[in-house]
TrEMBL record:
Residues 1-23 form the signal peptide. It is found in: Periplasm. GO terms for cellular component: periplasmic space. Gene3D superfamilies: Bacterial extracellular solute-binding protein, family 7. Its main location: periplasm. It comes from the Bacteria. This is C4-dicarboxylate ABC transporter substrate-binding protein.
């Protein structure tokens, strides 16, 4: 057999192997590291449970830390079938997801992460305008999430409004960047993976992020001060977004398995996220980091910003083509208030109790035969 024939034979064999692998397993994508609370439970454990509950009919191979898709490409990647399920941070695609970014920028309305995880999930699954947006982008929305509260993690003390002047703050974009400008700081838009370098090199004064970053991004090595002013929390986009052909190809019974597992990990990831924050802050304090509260001038400035920024949210949404952002925000606020009340009467540290509530109020009300199919 000549070399050309050998290469041709090898190529055919590789294609066959790839086709077989694709038929047996699917790709699950997340750009956080595998040790992160939003990956190790909602993706790694999730994949194991789904494979077991579907009798091996739905098997996900989990790719983490951007090894399959970079953050800005996750929406396109799931639409095009590079991944069959992915996490997506909505900030990366404001033009494609104007409604998701509109509600995602309401992060200061209620900073309770558990409330926002459940509220964003129900809204994303049931609001007609939001559903139309997912469909237009070739994704079946599966469920939301929320980070823990965002805090200023700094290499310089921040106590007062005056302390904020001219400080360079890593922000998540949108409302967070506008808040920085509102208080006289300078917003810096960089990925979370670059926070350490920025603080270490002095190009950042603070990273504004959930405090688990002290461990997950090793910020405790470069952060000397943490201010506990809650600068919102992040939930824009989705924790699980599915490729449409994949979703429609699996059985209704297997879609119900996915519903049930998402209901469980919706609450589980919040419990684990907060545990990681507590552990990270304690460890950093033991290593010498100072934890402090904002003074009245800074708290008042945040309160003033929250009121003023809603008009900006509405104006920006209209510029991006959202027809009636006022009505959408009213609906979202009602959903938030509903979950604020519901979660007051459940053990917030019991993942099974939270899963039962998520099923009863959200997932059991969906029809696995038609959701994402019609």
């Amino acid at each position: 057999m000549n070399m050309t024939a050998i290469l041709k034979s090898t190529a055919i064999a590789l294609v066959a192997m790839t086709t077989t692998a694709t038929a047996e397993s699917y790709n699950a994508n997340h750009f956080f590291a595998e040790r992160h609370s939003m990956v190790r439970g909602p993706y790694v454990e999730f994949a194991e449970k789904v494979a077991k509950e579907t009798g091996g009919e739905v098997k996900f191979t989990v790719f983490s830390a951007g090894s399959l898709l970079p953050p800005a490409s996750s929406l396109q990647g799931v639409r095009d079938g590079v991944a069959q399920v992915t996490y997506h941070a909505g900030t990366y695609t404001p033009s494609e997801l104007p409604i998701a970014n509109l509600v995602g920028n309401m992060a200061f309305y209620n900073t309770d992460p558990l409330v926002m995880a459940f509220a964003s999930t129900e809204f994303g699954l049931t609001n007609p305008e939001q559903q139309a947006e997912w469909k237009a982008n070739g994704v079946v929305f599966g469920g939301g999430y929320s980070t823990s509260e965002y805090f200023m993690q700094c290499n310089t003390p921040i106590r007062t409004l005056e302390d904020m002047k001219g400080k360079r703050l890593r922000m998540a974009g949108g409302a967070w960047s506008r808040f920085a400008e509102f208080v006289g700081a300078v917003p810096v838009s960089i990925p979370s993976s670059e926070m350490y370098t920025g603080l270490d090199a002095g190009s950042l004064d603070c990273a504004v992020a959930a405090a688990d970053a002290l461990d997950s991004f090793s910020l405790k090595d470069v952060v000397t001060d943490l201010n506990t002013l809650a600068i919102g929390n992040y939930y824009a986009g989705f924790e699980w977004g599915y490729n449409v052909p994949f979703w429609q190809s699996i059985s209704a019974e297997n879609r119900r398995v996915l519903f049930n597992q998402m209901a469980y990990y919706l609450g589980q990831h919040r419990i684990e996220f907060d545990k990681d924050v507590e552990k990270a802050v304690t460890s950093a304090q033991n290593a010498g980091m100072t934890v402090t509260e904002a003074d009245a001038t800074l708290k008042n400035a945040l309160a003033e910003f929250v009121v003023a920024d809603e008009a900006v949210l509405i104006k920006t949404a209209k510029e991006r083509g959202v027809k009636d952002p006022e009505t959408i925000l009213t609906s979202f606020k009602a959903t938030i208030d509903k979950w604020d009340a519901l979660l007051a009467n459940v053990d917030r540290h019991d993942p099974d109790a939270l899963a039962q509530l998520a099923r009863a109020e959200i997932y059991d009300l969906l029809d696995e035969k038609t959701y994402g199919v019609d």
